[in-house]
Amino acid sequence: MLLLAFPAAARPASNDTATSLTLRAPGATTYGHQVDFVGRISPSASGVHVRLLRGSTFVAGGYTNPDGSYRIQVDIARPGPFHAEASGVASPGVTVRIIPKLGVTIVGARVAGSPLQLHATLTPDYAGAVRVRVRRSGGRTFAQLFGSSATVTLGTSSIETFQIVVETLAKPGFASVSKTVPVSLRPPTLTVGDKSPLVAEFLRQLSALGYEIPSVQQTFDYDVQESVFAFEKVQGLDRTGVVDAAFWSKLADPVIPKPRYTSGDHIEVEKARQVLFIVRDGEVKLISPVSTAGIPGYFTPVGTFAIFRKVNGYDTSPLGILYKPMYFTGGYAIHGNPSVPPYPASHGCIRVPNFVIERLFTSEPYGETVIVY
Question: In CATH, what class is 12-98?
């Protein structure tokens, strides 16, 4: 029989007289990171095989150094508990808390009225559940519990800043994590043809400020543009008919117009800004855009007048065919027109949008004072 002998240094040493084995590891680590499990066998011995186990499942192994120490590196995915075994001796157990990864993304333009979604994903998916809280202004809060991932459609019907808090309900051995995401919704740019809940929003605000509006609606049509023109005129903005950042800024802190004359109920027409005011008890109660004379050779008379004739329908006058005219001097009238540009363009009458004359024709009686300046 041929016997093969190996040098002592080439053979792992054994230790049949080990009395204790220690095991240490970090208290916590991020999922997917490598962890060093370290310990020492006593009495010290070199080359002793050490096995790392999670419960009864083998995870990894290594050998002791001459001083009895060992190091086992593991890409950890579950929290344990872990223990080591060597030469028939087992170490005390250790548990490494795993910090899962929480991904949170906001999908969509952060513009009021535009679609916006929250997506949250927990990795690993067995680390727990995801809870989403949306904290809005005024104390309004939305909260919902999901599995390991969540998709939430975020309401964007108003211009505001709110907070999204995504947190985990951790399973044993996993750490709880959370993320807070502030969301600021920028004002949209809206123009004729657009449809958005923000159209209804700014129309409600204009109406509360006294501007005549066609109706509270989500479609930005030409009647809505007339109300926008009126606001731009009073606020000193460029008369673009577009609801842009400057418009929203002024809407948040508007100039409140004052009548030139405070005595008695009356109508004022200010040619410089091309607006009409209905004045009651010394305050402006209604604001409408107008278009006065702008054709060469024609003018809109200035002075104090009174409504002396009203025609419920269309009427032919020297200045054209007028809708529901309210004559205040000669052939000059306040009347409806489908086209009220933001600049002087009439033959001399005072044009207002058709939806405005529908109200004025009913609310303004015969004898009502009309002051044009």
Answer: mainly beta
